Amino acid sequence: MSIFEIKGLVREYDGEPALKNININIGAQALGVIGKSGSGKTTLLKILAGLLTPSQGKLSFNGTEVTPAVLLDLRRRVTMVFQTPQFLNGTVRTNLSYGLRIRGVSDEEIKRKVSDALDLVSLEAYGERYARNLSGGEQQRVALARALILDPEVLLLDEATSNLDPVNVSLITDILVQESEKRLVVISTHDLDQVKRIAKHVIFLEEGIITEQGDPYKLDSVNRFTENVYTGISNVEKGVSQVHVGDIIIRTSSPLTGRISLHVRPQDIIISKGWIETSARNQFRGLITGVNERDGIVMIDIDVGEVFTVQITRRSFNEMSLKLGEPVNISFKASSVLPL
Ligand code: ADP
Ligand code: MG
Predict the structure, then answer these.
(1) CA–CA separation, 236 vs 66, rounded Å?
(2) pLDDT for position 53
(3) What are the phi and psi torsion angles at 42 (to 5°)?
(4) Can you give the pLDDT at residue 295?
(5) By percentage, how much of the chain surpasses pLDDT 70?
(6) What is the distance in A from the centroid of ligand 1 to the CA of 77?
(7) pLDDT in the model for residue 162
């Protein structure tokens, strides 16, 4: 039986639909939700958590339609971890205990559960630390422990590792892989390696519609975004966002600030042997580090500080007589840099 059944679900904000006619049954297997910013991921997860209600359509949880009468029960069985965790003023222990205390769990059991939960996220010695003073990665691990201590049927994570360093991302991902054996895990993320590791089924949202779904290893929307994804800090100057990714600056016409992820399609990048006069705002020089051919199309990896994969035809490849280890330039327009 499905845990969630969603039929004809619409969610509007001030008359504007953020989700349009969503239909999906979610079983016990971990689900990944991917899609660009604004595509409706958070709205969908909040509806599953009982934190938002649909404007139209039906949502069932364990075979029962979610109505105001059962909303409280849904919220007790489903926990959600957000991108930026909020903590009570107090220690990690206070924060982890809170949900158990309001459920009437005994002091002794709370003590045991807090210790197990801290173990799980490798923060054994952090019980008496002040939660709000921890690093971002530690806070997110506490937030995960706080969600799991309630032993929920469903664990939802909304871009929960987006702002974290690779060590914390990998630690949390490992925990989620284990947890997905014990309960339904639904994760929205831009991290496609993470979604492949955790999710058995992935839905791709575009403007509030599921436009593709399936096995994450086979999904075109996953594969299409696997190459040329960069994360960096963006500031806007003269209407163009300058995104600092490692040692390079990628310019995008979307006015974005803060930490963001970007994608450039391999077919939108131009290769040239030298510098070219171009209106394209991005031009870099680097070395060819890889050449792979698939069905008459050549994918070339070029390391300019970050590695870019460029797609060209076999014919252009031959005409340009490109070789591994050679220096080349790549250029692409600011409008070809797509925020994820
Ligand atoms: P995502 O999580 O994929 O970035 P969201 O679910 O946050 O997408 O948003 C989907 C759409 O709904 C966006 O167009 C967003 O601007 C809009 N939206 C989200 N929350 C609100 C809100 N509280 N009020 C008005 N519009 C909102
Ligand atoms: Mg969101």
Answers:
(1) 43
(2) 95
(3) -65, -40
(4) 63
(5) 97
(6) 25
(7) 81
CA 127 vs CA 92, 131, 140, 152, 256: distances in Å: 5, 9, 14, 22, 37
Ligand closest to the CA atom of residue 40:
1
CB 287 within 8 A of CB 339: no
- Minimal-distance CA residue to ligand 1 atom 1: 38
- For ligand 2, the distance from its centroid to the CA atom of residue 44, given in whole angstroms, is 9
Residues of the chain with pLDDT under 70: 221-226, 294-295
Beta bridge partners of 208: none
* Interval between CA 41 and ligand 1 midpoint (Å): 8
Instruction: Provide the pLDDT for residue 192.
Output: 81
Q: What pLDDT does 226 receive?
A: 64
113 φ, ψ (degrees, to nearest 5)? -65, -40
Q: Which residues surround ligand 2, an ion (CB under 5 A)?
A: 41-42
pTM of the model: 0.74
Determine which residue's CA is closest to atom 10 belonging to ligand 1. 40
Ligand 1 atom closest to residue 36's alpha carbon, by position in its atom list: 3
CA of 209 to the centre of ligand 2 (A): 15
Q: What's CA 216's distance to the chain center, in Å?
A: 13
Q: What is the pLDDT of residue 153?
A: 98
Taking the CA of 11 as reference, the closest ligand is 1
